[in-house]
Amino acid sequence: MNATVIIIFLVIVAMTLVITYYAAKKTNSASDFYTAGGGLTGWQNGMAIAGDYLSAASFLGIAGSIALFGFDGFLFSIGYLVAYLVVLFVVAEPLRNLGKYTLADMINARFNAKKVRGAAALSSITIVIFYMIAQLVGAGALIQLLFGIDYLWAVLLVGIMMTIYVLFGGMTATSWVQIIKAVLLMLGTVVLSFLVLKNFNFNIMEMFTQMKTATPHGEAYLKPGVKYEIPLDTISLMLALVLGTAGLPHILMRFFTVRDAKTARSSVMWATWIVGIFYVMTIFLGFGAAAFVGADLITSTNPAGNMAAPLLAQALGGDILMSFISAVAFATILAVVAGLVLSGASAFAHDIYGQIIKKGEATERQQMLAARYASVGVAAFSILLAIFAQSLNVAFLVSLAFCIAASANLPVIVYTIFWKKFNTAGAVSAILTGLISALVLVSVSPSVLSPEAGAAILTGTPLFPLTNPAIVSIPLGFIGGFVGTLVSREIDEKKFAEVKVRANTGGFKQL
Amino acid sequence: MAKTITGEALQGPLTKEGNEVKPASAGGAAEVPDFEKIERSEGFKHLMRKKKMFLIPATALFLGLYLAFNIVISYTNWLDAPIAGDIPWVWVFAFGLFAMTWILVTVYMKRAAQFDKMAEETLKEFGYEEKGDIR
User: Fold this and answer.
1) What pTM, to 2 d.p., does this model score?
2) Which end of chain A is more exposed for a tag (fewer CB within 10 A), N or C?
3) Which ipTM was obtained for this model?
């Protein structure tokens, strides 16, 4: 670890702590804690969404994947971006118009049943925990490499920082950490892309020509099929990515930080541009790393390819750029895990404690206390899991989180907004069918069971052929909701009229 | 801060008389508007029609193109041929999906501004007006 790294690193830590200090002064109610008082502007929330969404898996993972696998590495980027159309067209505005702090609030605007809220909270918590383990394990390994500290200390460092932001500064601190991270990440990526393009003489044609021979894959590098060889598996994964974003609790939660549906909409617009431009630049990062660092050095530093971007920075910009990119990676991790802690805490403290146990009658003080206890609880639990999961291959948990979000959360959201006959039983069965089928299928899939010892969490023969079960579990979630609704036959058309009017006009919010 | 938005607060007696649906904030006791009446109103039905006319084809378009792209690249090598120099078609189509996303977002932002106006008119017709920041 050199002096530049330490200085840049300390500057980022200090900056986020100053933000947390000021945010803490403004965090006086549950609404402040969960939604930053609902006062963010469109561009602020758009940047924060990008900051929340572009995880280390996006930045380091995709850059590494493109470096090692060419076009196949870029596939994730396409799914991650197109997903925002689902968010914009289906979810963002009704969510803002109907909900308050959580996804369960929105669904309960129609049903007001504890079991629906409980089921929604359960699926949110499951997604958050899986996503968080993947992030923390990745972060631990990465910080170990970047700053040369032990895995245990790396996880603890990230864990303590995220807890401080959320515990004291709530959504305000989390949002600004995410906004700053988005700016830093874009800045770092633009600089790296510029240097890569400069080395290709700013000629895209020449870049492709060189890439054709620059890697061990030869011509195949520029075409699909290097990494994903089973067609149905690829399609299943891509379905999870495009439909999952609209069900991720930490992304959904961001829409409660703006005052109305119009601002929610414009924040998606901002996010789409930032996220999209970022993903286009991942091509340059990946190609650059493959050409100027080389696959051998990338895989010998980290077999998953996660060090491609920092190594590229080292190769093109020396120690200073490498330090800056490492610091950006650190900020990236912090911003995402802070958002995750907050959304996990909201499911525990607001849904389970505030609405189910206290029946919505908790005092402001009780709500705040519960939110803070839940934040510490979620953080501590994830840190523990991450420490135990150190040697496990948990990279698949990110796409599993997307799969659960698409299977358990998206069907119930779609039915709640659009289907007149949908009812309480349908809502519970949609969530549980999607959640359970995704979990069961993945636990017997090649992601968890591999005949080769050590390749996956367990050794054995997979019973389900696909690594990502989305292509089966998403339809099951929809069927679950449909069958559950028909079986119970209860129907409340008045309530649907209300939900429809409120979701589509944004009126009658104070009810 | 508004009370928790739950169904409970809304299950009071419905206002029956005329088109006058008073919002909760008007005069003391919370009166619940007749949502079914609003739902059946011409203005609201018009809004829903216009929304559907945009959202259904647009969603079908982007999901269709996205799935078609993934199916084609997974099962065939149609897009492996170069379009220019050494750039295979698959990159052009991939970037096409990016462009499609940005275009649809931009078009939707324009459309949604019209939807907002229609929604506002409907709300006005039923005596509801945004009373500043309701949080």
Assistant:
1) 0.91
2) N
3) 0.93
